[in-house]
Amino acid sequence: MSNELLKIKNLKTSFRIDDEYYAAVDDVTLTLNKNEILGIVGESGSGKSALAFSIMRLHTRAKIEGEISLNNQNIVKMPKSKLNKIRGDEMAMIFQDPLTALNPLMPIGRQIEENLFLHNKKLGQQGRKKRTIELLNLVGIPRPERVYEQFPHELSGGMRQRVIIAIAIANDPELLIADEPTTALDVTIQAQILDLIQELKQKIHAGIILITHDLGVVAEMADRVAVMYAGQIVEIAPVDKLFANPLHPYTRSLLNSVPTEGQDRLHVIQGVVPTLKNLPRTGCRFAERIPWVDASHHEENPDLHEVEPGHFVRCTCYKHFYFPDNKEEQENGVS
Amino acid sequence: MEANTAKIAEQKSPSSLNILLRELVRDKLALVSLIFLILITAFVFGISLFLNQAEIVTVDLFAINEPPSDQFILGTDYGGRDVFGQLIIGTRNSLAIGFLVTVISGVFGIAFGVVSGYFGGHIDNFMMRIIDFFMVLPFLMIIIVFVTMTPSYDIFTFAVIMAAFNWMGIARLIRSKALQEKELDYAQASKTLGSSNFSIIFKQVLPNITSLIIVTMTLNLAQNIGIESGLSFLGFGFPEDTPSLGTLLAYATNPQTLEFRWWIWVPAAVLILLLMLSVRNVGEALRRAADARQRRG
Amino acid sequence: MWKFIVRRLLITFPQIVFLSVLVFIMAQLMPGDALTGLIDPTITQEALEIQRERLGLNNPWYIQYADWVTGLVQGDLGQSYRFKTDVTAVISERLNNTVLLSVVALVFTYLIAIPLGLISGRYNDSPLDSAITGYTYLGFATPIFIFALVILWIFGYQLGWFPTSGSVAPGMQPGTMEYYLSKLNHSLLPGISIALISVVGTVQYLRSEIVDTKQKDFIITARAKGASENRVYNRHIFRNSVLPIAAFFGWEITSLITGTVFVERIFGYPGMGLLFLESIGQRDFSVVTALTLLFGIASILGALLSDIILGMVDPRIRIK
Amino acid sequence: MAFLDVKDLQVYFPIKGGILNRTVDHIRAVDGVSFELEQGKTYGLVGESGSGKSTTGRAIIGLEDVTSGQVLFNGKDVTDKKAKTKDFRKDVQMIFQDPYSSLNPRKRVLDIVAEPLRNYEKLSKLEERKRVQELLDIVNVSSDSIFKYPHEFSGGQRQRIGIARAIALKPKLIIADEPVSALDVSVQAQVLNFLQEIQKELNLTYLFISHDLGVVKHMCDNISIMYKGRYVEQGSTKDIFENPQHIYTKRLIAAIPDIDPKNRERQFKFRQEIAKEYRESYDRYFDGNGLAFGLQSISSTHKVALPEKG
Fold first, then answer.
1. N or C: lower Cβ tally within 10 Å for chain B?
2. Domain encompassing residue C116
3. What ipTM does this complex have?
């Protein structure tokens, strides 16, 4: 048997704006293995969070097409009752904003217990409480008995994020989706939370999808990385290959715009991230932001090409991409 | 130079009111309501010029409680007074007083709210206590007492008394909005750019709450028309002999009138409902328009 | 929590003091004084002056105020000129009726408003919601006196289902079962009239609160746990939205009082509202003053109660 | 004489409490901070949320009341709000974090950028427009957008409009409060590049407040690290990154994710070591209240908060 946990095929998630559907996630295909961390990087509007919500089927008003199968069960077509059995049990999610992701009027303990109650009926009330305290311990919360009774607003942001993680891992999920789990936190807290996620991975052997805009976080955490732009995966590769040998123009531009050692000027990507409504729907979606690359170098219908084992790049334009020198960029770069 | 300023003025983007009005026209129900309001206002103010109030309120014992006829389109009341004439003048009075009260309470409430919200701290604390106190007063009774007590009582005093107990809602709303706005970076930025408090309040913060003010004032207008007719209904509204919609309705507290003389009270009831609904439709449409603009901006 | 209550009480006290000052000023503005209603009209001017002096009516205003407050605290609200008896006695007769009416109105308000609000909020933008929203829209624009008149006309006169005036059928023996049933029966129509209008605010609040809560992140957390839609609504959304409603009735008291004044007038229901209107019409000012004060205190205490209840149901307020 | 000299700055916020809602205690947002700025350089002020870094900047420009201490600008005392002279107000400007709320949504770009000009310079309409257009040229926002409203621009463009407004009066010092943290990486690069350019052109001094050590390292000549209202370390960028002395500085540096996956193991170990050192020698770095000690010089450029010797 393969090690494959999650398989996404031609996923398309569309939202309705003024009576028309616009795809925020467009033709995404990827797999996640057990015990693996897949990082998904992108800027705001790239569709990375929409992808995460699609996997959990948490969108209330979206059209989802394609296939998402977790342990060979197709989530897209699953009836709600079945879905509810899987959510929180086989798959779980860690959210971005610890300030709003917890019910403000419910004690911490009850919020974790709810997840146990829903998926583990055999556990009695005592058992649930015991397990909850255990979970609070596991995610590194000091004095769990006290926190059990407290309300969310009595905890710091980092502590709340730990509670959210405790809820997510309560039933030892096989798939854990972390949607920007550290964006709202301070760096030292971020480091602690990331280390905690690594540690938990060893313990529960889950497959983890880590969504972030921070290339550093991906470099530290992921086994494989997918880079998203305008709803599509533009490059996907094992982490060392992606950072050592980035190919897609977007990946390269992104890496060059982060301050690193000995860099005088940062690279600026021309133009702006297109809004959902104005997303280019044909051809290479990144083409308009690298106008110096000749149109003939782009594919008409760009596809992912395997350039080395496990390393895929969309469109052929990467072969012809170069950074124009700073002077040229200065003249027409910023708009 | 002249031409240039003119060009700047020309390009000046539409004001809040303009944007709101434009949105309003798109909303069919609100548009119908607006047209109805304009027509009825023009109608009652126009017709009442030709009506003789003294004649209408004169008791005519030979024509009491007459059903609608050619002579009296909507019949007469128990004093033989023409219901139609009372209806017209009553509507005019209700609209006028509603407008007056809304303006007086609005101006005071806005000033109070902006000052309280913008300056915050102890000033705000103190001013909020005043509002809290006014909010829990049984305002209906107190207005009635003042109405009865005031020696030289006329329409304007009535408006002032009503406004005195009706400014808190808008003050509170404006205060909380001002409190939010002044914390926003743009207001903070103005401080660092050397603008005075006065200029920040009027040039920076107020433009951001004009649509809220327009919407609230419109909804208050509906409310004030309701309160006025309510007070008149109880007999503590307009000075005696001034026709009012509420007075016509008050006749219906007589079971005979309620059961058998619909022409006296039903038209007034329908008219009050239509007025309040229309004003409210316009107000709600404005609110939706303002919200939509908020989202875009 | 105790700190919160004590602090809230500290705000209440000056409110009551201010109210009493306001009412006292009103009383001073009213023509006549405590003697106006009592005295034999044939009494001489000197004797009247002696009486005035004896009752302290020539004292400076602050001493009069102090005397007045002392009286109030001891339950002395003055003399009614119309009924020639203690105001306390006059009012207590009517108090029961108004309390009954208010309770009926409140009970119906909650009975109607909560289900409507929940349905409207959960199934927002459905036809059912549109119907409910349409009703609240109309209800908001309808003054209570028009509404009550129409109700009286339809159910009282046209259909004849309910009595059209009074608080009890004539000839009933107080203390009997029939007596209480008749009282209740008389309070139903006016009570429901108030309720049908006052539900509007609660329904609108509930609806917007639920629609708002629906979009909160913690609802997504709950869904991600695998909670069914019913559970999400019952455990997370409704709970969070309905709890504050428990506190609403206190704030409703002000509008409830307004409602009873109109409704008692329309239904000829002998409560405090009607007493107020009659007294002011008959220039029985000591009763007017007393009623204004009582209504004011009721509103202040109502607000106090609401704040405290809200503090109890919402931990975020409690901790502060 | 230093260009800007901050001496023992304290900013306390009252905590209301008790039954009477009196001030029962204070949050010591800034608790005795001293530093000097020289003209033309960029000073980084780094710390996590609640460290008091923003409050420090806001107190200097007068958005917060100074509890005690002194702020000297070109030798003149400008601590008190009333003492802030016209010159000071013109010379010191601020760039805000959120490009969405820092521009008044009801104002046109012209009015936004012209606001400081209207307050300090009496210009005719035509002159004013010309100046605004020049400023927009400098920040690379096309000058036909002068009659547009903020919502018609992207985040990066808005931030540049905010910068145009800040440089309208040709200031000498700009306090940049997290100027890029609300922006996407690629847009962030654009604004950072641009800040560097205008610095050269206008000989600006920056007080660059940020939580992002990477950005600060890229931008600044000098860095100060703040923790709970106090400075824990101050030095040249080289001092801070190559020779961090205070455990808190080390923790911050260790927490930055390394962009090279090859260093992953090393970084993880480093973090573990620092965590261990933090646990074991906490008392060496923090006093009984968990606050940093006073700064001690360890070289001509480098100061660290350590207990006084002896």
1. N
2. 88-284+291-307
3. 0.82
